[in-house]
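User: Here's a protein and a ligand (uracil). What would the complex look like?
Assistant: Let me lay out the input and then the predicted complex.
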Amino acid sequence: MGTKLRLDKYLSDMNIGTRSEVRSMIRKGRVFINSLPCLKPEEKVSIDKDEVSLDGNIIEYEKYSYFMLNKPAGVVSATEDKQDRTVLDLLETVKRKDLFPVGRLDKDTEGLLLITNDGDMAHRLLSPKREVVKVYYARIDGSVTEEDAAVFLAGVSIGDEKPCLPAKLEILKSDDISEINLSIYEGRYHQVKRMFEAIGKRVIYLKRISMGGLDLDNSLKPGEYRRLTINEVNYLKDITSLI
Ligand code: URA
């Protein structure tokens, strides 16, 4: 049996309006199920078998939604928080309520964060077994050297049971403030900051620029987001189904 949803949820998930807005549309007789008017917001509809239309336009149900956010500093990677703004608060034009961030970035970290309601894909992207690559750009207090790169490549110990997996450090600029790109294949708590701490250096700015080979869209300013394209979604499905 296919998934069934309340008619008002179906429509608000598809961004037609808030729950109360779509209820009003339904009560006004603007919504049809299988060519018959339906005045009941609580009516159950099958997302695969029923045809829902509003003002004569068919509204297809999209089971999974995928967004790319350029997370700004100062918001937390959670669905709800008592004190802070969350990454979901930033998706102001998106009505569906079942979205969550794929993993976490620290409150002060910026950059690529995927947001979806596809639990399977999120799980596969985050599974340590898959070793999905994450690339971070960082500014570091002090000069970063090739010796540091060698330590990271050998697998630096950050005080956990096991040392980190080999990580690739690319030095973009070595100076009083250095600039680097770091590719890591796991996602431990505060990993990048702790890796630099382990070599006596401090991260002063951190931004994720890529995940699983999917790059942050440069046209997104901090706080902006867009839907992933079908090609990007298929690409993520491909890379997560390989193992
Ligand atoms: N590593 C960190 O230290 N912080 C992040 O937000 C992500 C990776």
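Summary: The pocket of uracil is lined by residues 105-106, 109, 190-193, 206 (CB under 6 Å).
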